[in-house]
Amino acid sequence: MQIGIFSVGDVTPDPTTGRTPTEHERIKATVAIAKHAEEVGLDVFATGEHHNPPFIASNPTATLAYIGAQTERIILSTATTLITTTDPVLIAEDYAKIQHLTDGRVDLMMGRGNTGPVYPWFGKDIREGINLAVENYALLRRLWSEDVVNWEGKFRTPLQGYTSTPRPLDGVAPFVWHGSIRSPEIAEQAAYYGDGFFHNHIFWPAGHTKQMVDLYRRRFEHYGHGTAEQAIVGLGGQFFMRKDSQAAVNEFRPYFDNAPVYGHGPSLEDFTEATPLTVGSPQQVLERTLSFREYVGDYQRQLFLVDHAGLPLKTVLEQLDLLGEILPDMRAGFAEGRSPNAPEAPTHASLVAKAGGAKDTTVHAVDDVTGVSV
Amino acid sequence: MTTRIVVVSAGLSNPSSTRLLADRLAAATTEALEEVELTQVELRDLAHELTDHLLTGFPKQALAEAIAAVRDADGLVVVTPVFSASYSGLFKTFFDVLESGTLEGKPVLIAATAGTARHSLVLDHALRPLFAYLRAIVVPTGVFAATDDFGDTGLQRRVEQAAGELAALAGKVQSSGSARHHRTVDEEFADPTPFEQLLKNASAP
Question: pTM score, two decimals?
Answer without folding.
Answer: 0.89
